[in-house]
Amino acid sequence: MTLATGYAKTYAMQRLVSIIGSFHLATRIRTAWWRLWIGRMGRDVRIQGGVHFSTPSQISLGDGVRINYGVVLAAKGEITIGAHSTISSGAIINTAGLVYTNPPERRDHIVAPVVVEDKVWVCSGAIINPGVRIGSHSVVASGAVVTKDVPPYVVVGGVPAAIIKEIRRF
Description:
- Helices cover 19% and strands 30% of the residues.
- It contains two helices and 19 strands.
- The strands form four sheets. The protein has a seven-stranded mixed beta sheet. A five-stranded parallel beta sheet has the order 1-4-7-12-15, with no helix packed on it. The chain has a five-stranded parallel beta sheet with strand order 3-6-9-14-17, with no helix packed on it.
């Protein structure tokens, strides 16, 4: 092997590694697999590992959605996630539950859709309960429990989630 051949092989290997790395191959394969099961999935969606989707046919993902490790989408009802939204690690979106305001013997099951509008960031460990709509450009803080609709352009946090601040519109 000549020196030139050695350089060529090294360059070829470096190029191959950079191409595989730039395509996030495992993420692309996983996303392609979920595309077979999810009801509607837009372009350029990325789904990381360790996610749990119950009834994936009830899920609709817009263009450019990012779903990170450990996310749970419990979709007995419809879940719609708008374009360019991010669901961070360990977040839970739930469309079914019990009517907790009733006495224990009358806690009926409810199923209600959840809508996460465009360009929303649901931070790590946040929980979104049935029947909630998260307005566009909003942020749900880490560990927040969302029980009511969230207006657009706000940051919510706490248990139950409340508006912390407004986001400036450009």
